[in-house]
Design a protein that fits this description.
- By secondary structure, the protein is mostly helical.
- It contains seven helices and two strands; from the N terminus they run ααααβααβα.
- α2 packs antiparallel against α5 and α3 runs antiparallel to α4.
Length: about 200
Amino acid sequence: MIGFYDYTVILTYLGALAGLLGISLSMSSKFLGAILCMAAALACDTLDGMVARRKKNRTRQEMLFGIQIDSLCDLISFGLCPSVLFYMLGMNSLFDKLLLGAYCLCCVIRLGYFNVLATEAELGTKGDFHGLPVVCLDVMVPAVYLLFRLTGDCLWILRAAAAVFGFLYILDFPVKKPVLWKFAAMGVVVLVPMVILFIWFRV
């Protein structure tokens, strides 16, 4: 079979499956479950690079494959999954569809450009990121969804999130790579609204 199936790509594949499950749950109006799937995909994406780098004898093909497959899976989990969630929450007018399409296109551009830079940098990303990483909307989705509910399902909350994050994905500005405390802060940003949603809304 073509492709690679060792432990270095397992988390990447699991992240893609979590994103696909999140899409399915959104289409069944199980929104909190979909957000949980996005959190799982975020965890997989955070850890997969660390796991892959532990294998010291990776071949050039394995490294190139890892770069490409990571971005393809990210498009599912961090591009399509939140877009379907927002669509099912009410962003289904023509304007909203165009906005969500633009958001997904920004994800495609950001991920494609990231792959070019990663390949040029001797099969590894070095220095700062260019533009906001596409995981960032998923980090904020629990808070965005909570605010959406607290404002009486105001669609402009979702529209603003899609527009702002999509634009920041393709805006060329340096973003420092996260260190351990930033990962911890990211976890807090995800978990605190999730706990509130579970206790309060139970939806």
